[in-house]
Amino acid sequence: MNIKYDLSTLGHEHAAEEAYKVRLQKTNDTLAVQAKRVCCLGAPALLLATALSGCAHAPPRADTAAYEAYQQQNDPIEPTNRFFYAVNDKIDRYAFKPVAQGYVAITTQGVRNHVGYFITNIGEPARMVNFMFEGKSRDAGTSLVRFVVNSTIGIGGIFDPATALGYQEQDTDFGMTLAEWGVAEGPYLYLPVFGPSGARDVWNIPVEFYATPMELAPESAALNDFGWAQTGLHLINTRAEYIQPIDQIRATALDPYATFRSLYRQSRASELQQINQRNVLTQPDWVWPAH
After folding, report:
1. Long-range contacts of 148-157 (CB under 8 A, 24+ apart)
2. Burial level of 73, CB count in 10 A (0-12/13-18/19+)?
3. Cβ distance 221 to 29 under 8 Å?
4. Per-residue pLDDT tens for 55-67?
5. Which of 110, 198, 203, 278 has minimal CB crowding within 10 Å?
C-alpha cells in the first residue's frame, strides 16, 4: 500500500495551530489585564459597601467619655474592620510571613535594599504627578530628577545615585493629594489584603495601579508578567522589612488592632506635615539685588 502525504496541507495545519496558540495567548493576556483593571477600579466601592454592612453602635451621648472616645477613634465600622484584620492576620501568619522569612534567609540586606530602590523608582512618576497636583513644585522636580537619574545612571533604579547627588526620596500618594485639596480622612478602614486605610486613602488602590510606567506602556505578555512579578516582589520585600516590628506589636500590645490603627493614623498625619513643611517656596537669590 502506498501512502502519500500532502506536505503543503500539513504545513498549513501547523501554521493554523500556531496562529491559534498565539490568539489564545493574546486572549489570556487581555483577560488578565482587564481583570486587574476591574479589581482596582471596583475595589474601593466594593470595600466601602461591604464595610457599611457591619457598623458599630455609637454609645449614648449621655456617656460623655465613651462618646468622645468613639468619635476620636473614627472607626464606625469597627466590627467589619476587626473581621478583616483577623482574616489578614491569619493569611499573614501562614503565608506572607513564612515567605518573607524565607526571602530574608536567601538574600542579604544589600540585595533587599536594591530591590527597594528598584520598586521606589517605579513609583517616582506617580509621586511626581501627585506633587504637581498638590502644588509642591520642588518635590515634583525632585521626583522627576530622581526618576531620570536612577533610571539611567542607576541602571533602571537598581541603584540610587540620585540620593548621593542630594535628591532625597520624598513620599506622597493620591491620599495625600486629596488631603491637600481639603478632603477629610473619613472613617478608618481595614481592607482585605491591603491592610490599614481610610475612606480617603482607599482611592490610592486604582490610582497607583494606573500611574505606573508598565500600565502606560503598550500592552504585551512580557510586560504583563513583569507587572505581576513586580507586585509580588514589592509585597515580599516590604513584608520582610517589617517582620520584627509586627512581631513585637503582636507580642506586647494588649489590642494589636487598635495599635495598628493608631500607628497608621500617626504615620499619615506625620507624612502630610512633612510634605507641607518641606516644600516651602522661597525667593531665589537672584530676584532682588543684595543690599
Report:
1. 150/117, 150/121, 150/124, 151/121, 154/117, 154/121, 156/118, 156/121, 157/117, 157/118, 157/119, 157/120, 157/121, 157/122
2. middle
3. yes
4. 555 555 555 555 4
5. 110
